[in-house]
Design a protein that fits this description.
It comes from Pigmentiphaga aceris. Keywords: Cytoplasm, NAD, Oxidoreductase, Phosphoprotein. Homodimer. This protein has 2 domains: about 180 residues, NAD(P)-binding Rossmann-like Domain (Rossmann fold); about 120 residues, N-(1-d-carboxylethyl)-l-norvaline Dehydrogenase, domain 2, CATH 1.10.1040.10. The two termini are about 35 Å apart. Helix content is about 55%, strand content about 10%. Helix 10 crosses helix 11. With about 300 residues, it is α/β, with parallel strands linked by helices.
Length: about 300
């Protein structure tokens, strides 16, 4: 049997994580102090699992996932003999401090203590714990059973081996962990999302475009490509000669756009060289044409799938 996983908080993210790990075969202990949240959690999980099954994304019956779920109002029961705890409480430092203090006391000393915080780093609430070396952030996309990326964000005091183990546990459950190199507010996911949102708000404010039109540009334009490849690969494939050529041609324009918003972050030659080096390690220029053709075929399949009526 796989190691038990504890989830603290039976809200939408907590139940979503319960789906991730019960689907992967783990016993899951779901803790919440609220009796109503505890009562509705199994039905919510079953309903979401039924949707996954109907879409062909679940290899078992939904009942099998519910059978691996233990819902409890006793944190000590949830914490017993677990390999990983995922805290999904509200974004308040005082709540997280109290929970991590209790979890540090109740869990096995080698259990990973992870917060699903969207912005608060572990150093805000775990610095003074005896077991702080096993504490980190594991920030998911929402919902994590459909959006598999998860950001593993160690604090300066986190043992690298604990971060490695967290990555392995999430990867084995079907997620795609990335390691964030340092604690910054918002991590990677929300910093990228925030950059888009800030500019979107400004474009509405300045009368450049409507809310609906901006959503259309992202949904039917940027989002179409980004569902297949990221922003660096997008511009790498958009410009013959790759990302270094793109930076040379478009860098000054992007610098001017940033300056309009009071931001001065030019793409220096050293930075471009670093990015280009990482891209060329992933895709040598002699394979550029092949990858462009792959992108176009993948977009064709996506367009065709979107034209099919929903079930």
């Amino acid at each position: 049997m796989l190691e038990p996983i504890a989830i603290v908080g039976a809200g939408s993210i907590g139940v979503a994580f319960a789906i991730v790990f019960t689907r992967a075969g783990h016993p899951v202990r779901l803790y919440d102090p609220d009796a109503q949240m505890r009562a509705q959690a199994p039905d919510t999980l079953h309903a979401r699992a039924s949707d996954l099954a109907a879409a062909g994304l679940l290899e078992e019956k939904p009942d099998a996932l519910v059978a691996r779920l233990l819902v409890t109002g006793d944190l000590s029961v949830a914490a017993q003999d677990v390999a990983l705890v995922i805290e999904c409480a509200p974004e308040r430092v005082d709540i997280k401090q109290a929970l991590f203090t209790e979890l540090d006391r109740l869990t096995p000393p080698d259990a990973i203590l992870a917060s699903a915080s969207s912005a608060l780093p572990a150093s805000r609430y775990a610095t003074d714990l005896p077991g702080r070396a096993r504490c980190l952030v594991a920030h998911p996309g929402n919902p994590p059973y459909l959006i598999p990326v998860i950001e593993i964000v160690p604090a300066p005091f986190t043992d690298p081996a604990a971060a490695d183990r967290a990555q392995a546990l999430f990867a084995a459950a079907g997620m795609l962990p990335i390691r964030v190199g340092k604690e910054v507010e918002g991590f990677v996911f929300n910093r990228l999302q925030g950059a888009i949102l800030r500019e979107a708000y400004c474009l509405v404010r300045d009368g450049v475009a409507s809310v609906a039109d901006i959503d259309t540009v992202v949904r039917e334009g940027l989002g179409m490509r980004w569902s297949l490849i990221g922003p660096f690969e997008t511009v790498d494939l958009n410009t013959r000669g790759g990302i270094a050529s793109h930076a040379q041609k478009m860098g000054p324009a992007y610098e001017r756009m940033g300056a309009e918003r009071g931001q001065h972050d030019p793409w220096t030659s050293d930075l471009v060289a670093k990015v280009d080096g990482e891209r060329r390690a992933q895709l040598p220029l002699d394979q550029w044409e092949v990858r462009v053709a792959w992108r176009d075929r993948a977009l064709m399949q996506l367009v065709a799938a979107r034209r099919k009526p929903p079930a």
